[in-house]
Amino acid sequence: MKIHYFQRYHQGEDVATANTMLLLSRLYHYSSDKFYLFLKSICAPNSTWDFNPGLSFNLQESAPKSRLDAVIVQQSFKVAVETKLSDWFYEDQIRKHLDVFGEEQYKVLMTLAPVHMANNKMQAIARAIAKHKEEKGYDLPIIHVNITFEEIAAACHNVLDDRDYEMLDIVEDYLDYCYHDGLIAGADSWKFMRMQLAGATFDFNMKQGVYYDGANRGFRPHDYLGLYKNKSVRAVGKIVAMIVADASNPNDVKYTVEKGDLTNERKTKIALAIKDAKQYGYNLRKVPHRYFFVDMFYETDFQKATRYPPRGSRIFDLTEVLGTQNIPAAPLLATLLRKKTWK
Asked: How many of the other CB atoms lie within 10 Å of CB of 120?
């Protein structure tokens, strides 16, 4: 059974905030250096000053009447977080929240929601922050970070490497929670490819054009599926159907269609997958599984440039990988991915 780090089934802003703070707390206790890198990464695009809240080690620093050999110092900071389940931020509330700041050197207001704030609200909050700064006489600005739940997870993931197994599992479960509770919008699924590990089952997946995974696993909506094997995404296909099958009773399989159509051919392929999985020690009847059907898997060679293999699935934004907003058909996509690498 998969271990969940974040509570589900209790929707609301308080739970969303608590789960996000738990994620960041786990990151801090795992590695304070990587936590500070995370903070710098989300603040850097919004500031012109050097946000560096971590410890610094300074040699031969002058005091008023002496000269010290060394000083270890940490500059003060405060991050104030306001969470919404939609773009429902308003100026009056934010203005009141600004009073939480005091003598900290770094002041960060984080507005967290499933979607980015509308431009007119961003401008209103910028005006409120500017007025508050003037009234309080702050030397440095209050930095406003408008960020989504998905971007929080991505920023955490970006400061980790392939060997940070424990934290990668925690970030994955946070994403799973966000998908489960509808905190990540999926309207842009057209540009995403989900990579899945497919070592033992690769030949079956290729031949039948289907991949399966536990139905309890959350994921970002995506239109493309890539199969990973031997340090590379070896095949890619466009998803045409997603069907959850509860096969605990072989004589009465229950199907839930999430995309596409439930055809006799797809029922047959699900039955073949259940039979084929047994030779690898997989019991697909034990719990419901989700079956991803593609038009066809096309061979490619989208290589991983770094040393360590991935621990699990990964989402790629194909517009970033290819450098274009126009995603080609799967056969051409497979050809283009051969010229790219990833870390």
From this structure: 8
